[in-house]
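Our platform keeps sequence and structure together, in a single record for each protein. Because each token names a local backbone shape, the row as a whole describes the fold. One such record is reproduced below, unchanged from the form in which we store it:
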Amino acid sequence: MWIGRERSQGFGGTMDGTFLDGQMLVAMPGMRDERFARAVIYLCAHSSEGAMGIVVNQPANHVNFPDLLVQLDVIPDDERIRLPHSAGGVKVLRGGPVETGRGFVLHTADFFIQDSTLPIDDGICLTATLDILKAMATGSGPASAMLALGYAGWAPGQLENEIQQNGWLHCPADPALVFEAEASQKYDLALRKIGIDPGMLSTEAGHA
């Protein structure tokens, strides 16, 4: 199953300001885990129970949204040519190394399914059911969306430790950066949003 029928449990966030849900994680140049090299992650949930996020700048090569709709039996093969323009342009991403056979739709808050959509922050939501794909296939889905295969997950305290070890920077999320920027530009744009020149950060890391 590509898309879960129910929202994942165990990732409840908090709004008290001590957690980073709704923010963006930006990998430091010295990131040791190659899966997250130059990664920009939108953090969907963060609490004492752990964290969950979607990598938003790693395209899934050789996978496109219309093909996935056919594979999931959302539409028959002969109807892909009649998909609305908005559906044809949906980007498919490698969302992270966990549950790579499952799909998660990160989208704007103009679309909401009761008991399925998780509102996060700044007008960004997460939905992991087939219903949103059906809506997108008919042109009645969210204004902006991307489909991520898999997600990034952290055990309790793991993300905090990685941040303390200078593995990640973080900053407030920017919906325009998440949905509109080209994947190849998101890393540098996120660093600039933090106030860091990408060239200077790379140089400093090289001398560490």
Observations:
- Confidence is low (pLDDT under 50) at residues 1-17, 203-208.
- Helices lie at 65-71, 85-88, 130-137, 158-164, 175-179, 183-194, 198-206.
- The longest strand covers residues 98-108.
